[in-house]
Amino acid sequence: QVQLVESGGGLVQAGGSLRLSCAASGIMSTSSTMGWYRQAPGKQRSLVASITSSGSTNYADSVKGRFTISRDNAKNAVNLQMNSLKLEDTAVYYCRAEYTIGIIPFNSWGQGTQVTVSS
């Protein structure tokens, strides 16, 4: 059973930093495409950043230069370092894993962690 557990969310002032972590079990995060998504109230869930099994990264334009996604292989986890946070970064952040079992693609989501940026 695949399980993703996010941590590290919280309340931070604008301009501050937070580090989110997504610990995976049941899969090897290094063999999966791992991503961070966010959903603000009244808005659709959207991609923030992703990292493939080969290490290629992709970022939403709104977070480029401020957020960094990385792997922690020892912990089978993926982190999202968020710097220079803005009010508009306030959202629930979700971790997602895309993986295959045999040739069948699957994806799993974490339960989400709240990030609130205050002025």
Explain what the structure shows.
The chain has 119 residues and is mainly beta. 0% of the residues lie in helices and 57% in strands. It is built from no helices and eleven strands. The protein is globular, with a radius of gyration of 14 Å. 31% of the residues are buried. The model has no long low-confidence stretch (mean pLDDT 95).
What is the secondary structure topology, with strand pairs?
Blueprint (H helix, E strand, L loop, with lengths): L2 E5 L2 E4 L4 E8 L7 E7 L6 E6 L5 E3 L7 E6 L4 E6 L8 E11 L2 E6 L3 E6 L1
Parallel strand pairs: 2-11
Antiparallel strand pairs: 1-3, 3-8, 4-5, 4-9, 5-6, 7-8, 9-10, 9-11
Beta-strand content estimate: over 45%
Mean pLDDT: 95
Instruction: Please state the structural category.
Output: mainly beta
The number of distinct β-strands equals 11
Major β-sheet profile: 7 strands, mixed
Short précis:
With 119 residues, the protein is mostly beta strands.
Features of the shown structure:
single chain; 119 residues; mainly beta; seven-stranded mixed sheet; four-stranded antiparallel sheet; globular
